[in-house]
Amino acid sequence: MQEASALAAKLRQMAAADTVTPAALAALVVDVFTHCGVPQHDAEIGAEVALWAQTHGSDSHGVVHLPLYTRGLLDGTIKSNPTIATTQPLPCSAVMDADHALGLVASRRAMDLAIDLAKTYGVGAVAVRNSSHFGAAGYYVDHAAAQGLIGLAFTNASPAIAPTGGTEGLFGTNPIGVGFPLHDAEPIIADMATAMVARSRIRHMLAAGQKSIPEGWALDPTGRPTTDPAEAVKGSVLPIGGPKGYALSLMVEVLCSALSDGKPGFQVTYENVVKRSSNICHFFLVLNPRGFAGTQAYDTRMAHIAGMVGQAKPMAGAEPPRLPGARGHAVKRQVAAAGIAMFDNLRAALKNVAGMIEAP
Predict the structure, then answer these.
(1) How far is CA 179 from CA 135, 247, 286, in A?
(2) CB atoms inside a 10 Å sphere around CB 224
(3) Which residues fall within 8 angstroms of residue 342, CB to CB, at 6 or more apart?
(4) Which fold has domain 196-238?
(5) CA 158 to CA 171: how far, in whole Å?
(6) Angle, nearest 10°, between helix axes 22-35 and 66-75?
(7) DSSP state of 159
């Protein structure tokens, strides 16, 4: 474990840089987690999950959340050494009690279990309760796709979306992640909130001093449309597709909290807001193509589907259609060559963690 002053200095030094390599940033995240008592192996997993978002263009779900994780670990509302317990009522399904673990770690463990079940039974499903923020859903489905499996990942979250016709946020932005492997090609990866925009993005825009957000993103506390980010943070965000997005958010809520017997999103509050465990729930589903039409048939069909998308005629003046995840794969290649740009919110996050570590 590094001394607090030395680790804080490293955090501030990195915050002052213009760019940083993924390896250097990951090593620093590992140092922060181990300083907070997280075992080395778990700390490396947590850093891997956080860096996935950072290296795939999902900046708002990456290392910028390090203050949330650090505050929780220092306060004990996120446990550095949890006792994670799993029950398996049926052969292909399980429920995991994460014991308020670092969500990045518990979720990787749950996805690994779902993968193992799918390799054996064709389908693997794991519901998780008593967890915490799990980062980007895309990481977990990419992890499954890398093993030739279809992965789906869901999480509930603190209330942000009002039911259609309501004014009060009740359900989280409840993301849906899905990954489809492609033979000898980069996988299809979709990671999307069920809201028009992730609430964290509005918070980041507000913190960056932006005075307005696009129309159609949010409602103020009275239920009226607003373009003021401060009012949007106090109000609710609009679901994608109106009532359809609300239904999708409800679907994710049910999969996560009802199947795990955990707390629903309207009872979730993040550790850095109220000093108690967040009780976030997740759900992971893995499908093994071998258990359906077979791996070869799946690969052939997927190549055909992906090929048709690639050949689709673009709109006038527009770029050709691309498969979900293509931008993230391009960002990963760019970051590998040029490093991660140190944007303002990331600088602020590292400085914030430095202050926490010096004065826990």
Answers:
(1) 16, 22, 10
(2) 10
(3) 14, 15, 17, 18, 19, 20
(4) Wheat Germ Agglutinin (Isolectin 2); domain 1 (3.30.60)
(5) 7
(6) 20
(7) S
CATH topology of domain 4-78+336-358: Hypothetical Oxidoreductase Yiak; Chain: A, domain 1 (1.10.1530)
Amino acid symbol at 351: K
Residue 192 CB burial class (10 angstroms; 0-12, 13-18, ≥19): middle
What residue segments make up the domains of the chain, in order of their start? 4-78+336-358, 196-238
What's the confidence (pLDDT) of residue 165?
Answer: 86
Q: Which residue type sits at 150?
A: I
- Separation of first and last alpha carbons in the chain: 15
Kindly give the residue spans of alpha helices, DSSP state H, lying in the chain: 4-15, 22-35, 40-55, 66-75, 103-121, 137-145, 199-207, 229-234, 243-253, 259-260, 295-311, 326-338, 344-358
Q: Name the stretches of the chain with pLDDT < 50.
A: none
> If you search the block for the tokens 């849906």, which residue do you land on?
176
The neighbouring-strand residues paired with 128 are 96, 282
pTM: 0.95
Q: What's the CA gap between 239 and 216, in Å, rounded? A: 10
Give how far the C-alpha of residue 213 lies from the chain's centroid of Cα atoms, to the nearest Å.
Answer: 22
> Is-contact 215 199, C-beta < 8 A?
no
Q: What are phi and psi of 351, to 5 degrees?
A: -65, -40
- d(CA 266, CA 154) in angstroms, rounded, equals 16
CB 141 within 8 A of CB 191: yes
Supply 47's token pair. 């850093």
Check if the beta carbon of residue 55 is closer than 8 Å to that of residue 332: yes
Element (H, E) at 150: strand 150-155
199 phi-psi bin (left φ>0, alpha ψ -120 to 50, beta other): alpha
Q: Which two tokens stand for residue 282?
A: 């997740």
Instruction: Please identify which residue in the block is written with the tokens 């590998």.
Output: 336
Q: How far is CA 290 from CA 47, 120, 293, 295, in A?
A: 32, 10, 7, 5
d(CA 23, CA 27): 6
